[in-house]
What we know:
A seven-stranded mixed β-sheet has the order 1-2-3-4-5-7-10, sandwiched between helices. Strands 6-8-9 form a three-stranded mixed β-sheet. The mean pLDDT is 94. It has ten helices and ten strands. The chain is an alpha/beta fold. It is globular.
Amino acid sequence: MASLDKDLDPVLDKDGVRLTVDDAIATVTLTNPAKRNAQSPALWRALTEAGRSLPGTVRVVVLRAEGQSFSAGLDRQAFTPEGFDGEPSFIDLARGADAELDATIAEYQEAFTWWRRSDVVSIAAVQGQAIGAGFQLALACDLRVVADDVQFAMRETSLGLVPDLTGTHPLVSLVGYARALEICATGRFVSAAEAERTGLANLAVPLDQLEDAVRDLAAAVLAAPRDAVVETKALLRGAQERTYEEQRVAERAAQARRLRDLAGLGE
């Protein structure tokens, strides 16, 4: 089956990340299957750059990975005294000032934040293991389609750390506090069936149907007018922070904008 980004010239191809664009659909591919797409600061910077490189035509961003695993999480080299070439080791970072450590983690988080911006809908296509940072990268997207061999796990707590790449908010939003705590505290694997049942996954399909399922979902999103999708996404994203009455007000304001635009009376 043809890959989602086959035969397209890459907009970006560096440090284990490839970005291709086909009109309204952009595909971000993790391209280091030999290391199970393990993550590093260089990869995070490349992901951030991919987000900044999206043309204005893009409405859907698909995140996928080459190989048997989506991402095995953080490259363990980060925990060695030497760290990565040209990068401060995590040990060195821990010895630095609080402000410097905070700024560095904030920079890493940027790779995980842009997937939920209002002007695009992001879809993660996840197969095999998505562990730690890999799980959090899948959680960064708006929607997740998983293969039946998927194994999600949040292993940070088991290593004496905490999930710090923006994954805790969407995890609690999707499965609730108690299940999120249990998943993080135990570090256990979450199967495709459980992911679909609990809302972690929008859809679970056989592995050989994964890309077709993602392609169909992307086409369904593109079938609706862009501005209506953007407004609806903003409404739903903000619903958790608003009261019921505040959400009613937001709905009215958004609908007024849509009606004026449809009537040709928009600003």
